[in-house]
Amino acid sequence: MLDTHSCNHYVSSAATYPPHKHIHTYLSQCPDNLEYVVAGTQSLDGIVMAEDNWNPQDLITKSHEAKECSYSPYSKFRVGAALLTADGAVFTGCNVENACTALGICAERTAISKAVSEGHKDFKAIAVASDMVESYISPCGGCRQFMREFGLEWDVYLSKPDGTFMKMTVEELLPESFGPNDMERKKAVPLKNSN
Asked: Which position among 68, 108, 153, 171 bears the catalytic label?
């Protein structure tokens, strides 16, 4: 039988349409979560918050829960993220380090990749969590660029373990950025080889 933390993580970790074929196994192993899972519009694999009345604090809480799954044996720097899609699904992610340092992946990119792999490309907000108590966690440059791929006008909640947060937009985190629209801009004609 799964423990409560595993059940909560299972619920929030993915959103699949139609509902997951193993949902009966989940419900039998996590009966305490049934009321929470059924309480709104949702796929039974992933929490779906009502589009107009979602609470940033709920997203921040999910990011801190995701942090618990961090695989960070080298840096000991745990990070979690919770991503809210435009249609209300929530995808979580954590940082996953690797002995070959360049192959590690950040929590934000994990959550976004999970969402995109399930067909979601429009996002409302992402919350990021760490264990830092004196300052808010902030996405690295690579994650800012990764978020920017999916728009500028969505919210980023930078949090502390006590639940306090600072809200910014992707555009505020990465001003004057390079993005998909730049690929369509007029470019100089390459010089021909004179040989």
From this structure: 108
